[in-house]
Amino acid sequence: MISLTDPLSSAAGALVFVMASSFLAPGTRAASDKPTPARTGKAGLTVVAETDRMIWNAVAIDGQRIFVAGPRWSGTGAPAVALLDGNGGLRPYPDAAWNGWQTGIDPTKGFVNVNALHRDDRGGLWVIDTGAPTFGGDPLPGGAKAVRIDLAANRIDRIYPLGLGVALLGSYVDDIRFHGDHAYLTDAGRPGLIVLDLKSGAARRVLDGHPSVTAPNDRPIVLDGKIVRGPDGSPLKVNSDPLEVSPDGRYLYFGTLHGPWSRIETRLLDDPSVPAAELASHVEAWADLPPVGGTAMASDGTLYFTDLAANALKKRSPDGSIRAVVADAHLHWVDAPVIDGGSIWLPVPQLDRLPLFHKGVSKIEWPVRLYRYQIDAARRAAPRTEKNAD
Predict the structure, then answer these.
(1) Quick one: which of 316, 370, 304 has its CA closest to 54?
(2) Which of 107, 354, 370, 390 is the most buried (most CB within 10 A)?
(3) Local structure of 280: helix, strand or coil
(4) Is the dihedral of CA 75, 76, 77, 78 positive or negative?
(5) Gap between the Cα atoms of 161 and 189, Å rounded
(6) Of 213, 238, 187, whose CA–CA distance to 352 is shortest?
(7) Using the 8-state DSSP alphabet, how is residue 229 labeled?
C-alpha cells in the first residue's frame, strides 16, 4: 500500500503529482489529499507518502515527481527504484526490466541492490548499485555501478562500472556527491572512498582503510536505547557512509555512520598523481557528529543530519553550533534526507527493525513513511557545484 498526502499541495490541498501512467501496484491505495502531521502540534512535519510494501531509504525530487529506492535485502520484493505515480502506486523506474534483476541475469544490465539516489544539476538521476544482492555479501562481477538516468527522456544514458580494484570483496558502495568533472562515493563495507572521473569513467580508491573511513569500536549505533546489532549479534559497524561537498566545492566532508567527520580538499582527491601517504596526511578533523542516518547540505554550509539515537533532524551551522530542528518518535532511522526548495524530505525506512537484525522477525512498524519538513526559506538547497561530464 502506498499513500500520498499533500506533496507540495495547492491552496485547495489537492495532489499535484501528475503522471502519465495509471499504474497502481498490487496492495496499494490512493491517498487522502490532506496533509497528515506526524504528531499534533509538530508544525511543519507532513506525511507525503506511506507504504506497506516497500522499505525506502532514499528519495529524489524532480519537480512534481518523487522517486524512492530501497535495498534488495529488505526482503519486500518491491521495485529497486520507483516513481510514486500519484494514484498510490509504485512505478518501476526507468522501466521494469532494470528493476527485474534476479540471480542468473547479467548484473551489468539491472539493479542488483540499490542503496542511494541523487539528482544532479543537469537533468540526471543517479542510482548507486552496490552490486551485492545480500547484506554483507560480495559485489557480483560487473554489479557495482553508478547509473545515470536522463530524467527528461526517462532512460539510462550512462553506466559507470565500479569494477576490479574499486568495489572489492566485502565492498558496499554507499552514496555519491559531485564537484566539477568528478564524483565521490563512500564504501560502507570495505572502508575507503572512491573517486570517479565523469569524463573518462575511470574510478579509483583513495584513503583505503584510513581511520577516517573506518568504523570505530567505541561509538555504537543506538536506537530506542538499544545498540543495533548485525545478523551475527555483534554491534553493527558501518564504515564510510555519509558525505557532502562544501558549497564552494573546496572540501569533501565525510565520515563513518558512527562519526566523527573529517574533511579533505577536493583538488587533492581529483589528482591521481598525489601519493596515498600524502593524501592521507591532508585529512583533517571536521565535526564530532553522533551516528547519523543521512545528511543534506544547504547553500550556506549548514549541514542537516538525522541523529539516530534522538529520532531527530538536527543542523550544524557553519560556526560549528548544533541544534535540533524537529524530533519525533516517528522519525526512527531517517535515512538520506534531501533538500528541495524550502523543504527537506525525510524517508524513514526503520532499517534497524528489519528481520535481518532480529533473527528473522520483523519489527517494522507499518506503514513506512516519507515526511517533508518546511525549513527556513533562506535555507535553500546547496547550489550544485558539480558540472557533470557530457
Answers:
(1) 370
(2) 370
(3) helix
(4) negative
(5) 18
(6) 238
(7) B
Average pLDDT, the chain: 88
pLDDT at 37: 42
| pLDDT tens, position by position, 18-52 | 222 222 233 333 333 333 444 333 557 999 999 99
Q: Is the dihedral of CA 177, 181, 187, 191 positive or negative?
A: negative
Question: Which single residue is written with the C-alpha cell 541523487?
Answer: 118
- Residue 207 makes CB contacts below 8 A (sequence gap 6+) with 192, 193, 213, 264, 279, 280, 283
What is the value of pTM for the model shown? 0.88
Number of domains in the chain: 1
- The pLDDT of 62-88, averaged and rounded, is 93
The answer to whether position 384 is within a domain reads no
Give the CATH number for residue 338.
2.120.10.30
DSSP secondary structure of 151-198: TTTTEEEEEEE--TTTS-TT--EEEEEEEBTEEEEEETTTTEEEEEET
Which are the contacts of 96, defined by CB distance < 8 A and separation ≥ 6? none
CA angle 196, 200, 202 (to 5 degrees): 45
| β partners of residue 61 | 66
Write down the pLDDT at residue 85: 87
Q: What is the pLDDT of residues 182-240, one digit of tens each?
A: 999 999 999 999 999 999 999 999 999 999 999 999 999 999 999 999 999 999 999 99
With respect to residue 386, please indicate whether it lies within any of the assigned structural domains. no
| Domain that includes residue 259, residue range | 2-374
Domain assignment of residue 268, yes or no:
yes
Amino acid at the residue 331: L
